[in-house]
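Known limitations

Files may contain more than one protein. Parsers should not assume a single record per file. Below, a two-record file is shown to illustrate correct handling: read the sequence, read the token line, then continue until end of file.
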Amino acid sequence: MSDWNTTVPEDGSEPWKCAAAGNDIIMPGNTNDDADIRDAYEKGLHSEREIRSCAGRIIAMIDKLAK
């Protein structure tokens, strides 16, 4: 999980790289995070496998906490 506002482009951050590195949850703060990740996916910089891995870990944590 990132901290608040850590994906602000003015600070040199690229949200898709956070997700590609295995950061499953990006805290709110930058309204362009979603568009950046989608754009990277469309350009082939971020794979469906990486995105599904992030989602899978979140789903697994929800399942674990629900028991």
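...continuing to the second record:
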Amino acid sequence: IAGVTHPLADGDRVVIDAPALSLQVIAVPGHTRGHIAYVGEGMLFCGDTLFNGGCGRLFEGTPAQMHASLARLSALPGDTRVYCAHEYTLANLEFALAAEPDNPERDRYRERCRALRDEGQPTLPTDIATQRAINPFLRCDSPSLRAKLSMTDAPDERVFAELRAWKDRF
């Protein structure tokens, strides 16, 4: 990538002086082949991989890569605060409603997010536990989501691919 002065790879550590932070680099290909995230001190900075209620489009990566990257992020502790690159929450939650209409936890969360946005407040950061409960891209094993897609016996990776393709058309 032109202009890169300090190439980073999975497992590298980045130390920032002000504010004092030590973050681990994790490779999260999918949105792009070289996409990385930073995790540490209870925070995740994930760019366009994971969004509040959604995930990034696949520009260079494959569904298998993105599914694996999201699984890696979903495995972080539930109280990890998620800082993503865009405030797409309400639009993502509309898709989540279509994908999994019978998720009451998502419904409650959507109302809280709507109230925040109505007050001009951000819905970010979120946290990993919330995303596990409301984000369809982290719920590829959900029986209701699989039923909606008519993919009850498909591998999670195929469910993810179909879900992402649907979101691209939504």
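Parsers that stop after the first record will miss the second one. For reference, the second record is described as follows. The longest helix spans residues 104-118.
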